[in-house]
Design a protein that fits this description.
The complex is a heterodimer of chains A (170) and B (271).
Chain A (H helix, E strand, L loop, with lengths): L1 H25 L13 E2 L6 E5 L6 E2 L8 E12 L3 E10 L16 E5 L8 E3 L4 E6 L2 E12 L10 E10 L1
Antiparallel strand pairs in A: 2-4, 4-9, 5-8, 5-10, 6-7, 6-9
Chain B lengths: L1 H18 L6 E4 L2 E6 L4 E10 L6 E8 L1 E3 L5 E3 L15 E4 L2 E4 L4 E9 L8 E10 L11 E16 L8 E9 L6 E9 L7 E9 L4 E6 L11 E8 L9 E10 L4 E10 L1
The chains are: A mainly beta (170), B mainly beta (271).
């Protein structure tokens, strides 16, 4: 009986060790992988960038009224083991043609702003990426307000706006 | 008893190991492709794209672009009409796959490969690899919604082995601003006129007409500057003692990360 208990214990130990090894192996490290027999193989560098953003379509603009900001708040997370730069750009679409304030381009009215401990100035977004934040290696939570000012005679329906974030080595 | 303790310890470790696993969204491993390559060599680099478990499925595209840099050192694709110059690696690199679909929790290998031309020349060759999500279809009930797109840029920095790596530059512009008896600001526009990338730093010395040193300032080491790229360095100088009206000189030098002198410039100003 005793030896069977030991055997059971041993199997549990092996099971846990296997699980540990599996988890450790999934946590990422320098790994050389074969790409093709005919190519010179370079080691895969451990440099890593990770960008965590809200789910597509989960965000709703609120408080939109003509001449005022519509706003939504998002939390961006950057994880990186190298210096990084986060950039943002904005586009709009859908039925925004109902907007009648022709003096101001809507794309120039899209802004992002860091709202964390030391809030920063707003970054105006255009169709080209603009620098938003940068930092050294580590994990960063970046609470952000995304705002757009609308102006209309007839309230637009079914409009969509898109904000794009890009992280790159700095 | 001993066996039970070991089991408890292992159970605890297993639980902790699962618990501390980083939650993933869009992650790319291998975002810097640094390599010494030889003319005629076949090269390859693999990146791993991972989508988090709780994410929505995503369609992604991958592009290789000519790599440009802004004056503040931001890496970005060269604009449409801009000439890529002789240091672009885009012409001999390809990426596979160009487009792919990734499910939550999934991974995809993206391989950048190419044949280095026999006549590739000397110095460094560079390219940007952009991985970005394609816009999803707008849902019918997605009224007044905000779409989010994500992108990750990766860098290819290839040094042609066995060739001269020329590290040199020039200070194309030097401007003094906010000059007062107590304070002087200096902006330096540095241009990498060499044939490879390097990091650089600026040092300035304030002297009077007799050559006595009255103040110093230096910048942190920059990020890598590509050949042909310009980089703006801003320095602020506060002399130990307030200056008196007179004629002064500022000697600005740019040095490479290994201490090599890259460029220097002298400015004269009157107070």
């Amino acid at each position: 009986m005793k030896s069977e208990a030991e055997r059971l214990g041993l199997s549990r130990i092996i099971s846990h060790l296997t699980l540990l090894l599996l988890v450790v192996s999934q946590s990422g490290s320098i790994t050389a992988r074969s790409v093709s027999d005919s190519t010179h193989l370079h080691a895969v560098y451990p440099s890593k960038l990770e960008l965590v953003l809200p789910h597509e379509g989960d965000l709703q603009m609120s408080d939109a009224s003509s001449g005022n900001d519509a706003k939504t708040s998002i939390l961006i997370t950057v994880r990186s083991n190298i210096d990084w730069l986060l950039q943002a750009k904005g586009n709009y679409g859908g039925k925004m043609q109902k907007v009648t304030d022709s003096d101001v381009l809507l794309k120039n009215q899209m802004r992002v702003q860091y709202t964390g401990e030391c809030p920063s100035n707003e970054v105006v977004l255009t169709n080209n990426y603009k620098n938003y934040r940068r930092g050294p290696p580590g994990e960063y939570q970046i609470p952000t307000d995304f705002k757009q000012m609308f102006a209309w005679d007839d309230q637009p329906t079914n409009y969509t706006v898109r904000v794009s974030f890009k992280v790159s080595p700095d | 008893m001993k066996m039970r303790s070991i089991l408890r310890m292992l159970e605890l470790f297993s639980f902790l190991a699962i618990f501390v696993q980083a939650s993933h969204a869009l992650a790319v491993e291998g975002v810097i492709f640094d390599a010494d390559v030889a003319p005629g060599e076949k090269i390859a680099h693999e990146m791993t794209v991972t989508l988090g478990e709780s994410e929505s499925p995503m369609d992604l595209a991958v592009e290789i672009d000519d790599w440009g840099q802004s004056n503040d050192g931001v890496n970005m694709p060269l604009e449409g009409q801009a000439s890529p110059g002789p240091y672009s690696a885009r012409g001999f690199l390809i990426v596979e796959p160009h487009r792919f679909h990734i499910e939550p929790g999934g991974t995809e290998k993206v391989v950048v490969e190419g044949d280095v031309p026999e006549d590739v020349g000397s110095g460094g060759r560079y390219a940007l690899i952009n991985i970005y999500s394609l816009p999803g279809k707008v849902k019918e009930d997605a009224e007044n919604s905000v779409g989010i797109s994500v992108a990750v840029s990766a860098l290819a920095r290839l040094i042609i082995a066995g060739t001269d790596q020329v590290r040199r530059g020039e200070i194309a512009k030097a401007n003094l601003t906010n000059v007062s008896l107590r304070h002087q600001n200096l902006s330096l526009m540095f241009v990498n006129t060499g044939n490879c990338h390097f990091k650089a730093g600026a040092e300035v010395i304030l002297m009077n007409r007799d050559g006595n040193i009255l103040g110093r300032a230096s910048s942190p080491l920059s990020s890598n500057i590509l050949p042909g790229a310009r980089r703006l360095f801003l320095l602020s100088m506060t002399p130990e003692q307030e200056l008196k009206p007179g004629c002064y000189f500022i000697n600005a030098t740019m040095k490479c990360e290994n201490g090599t002198l890259l460029a220097s410039k002298e400015l004269k100003f009157d107070l």
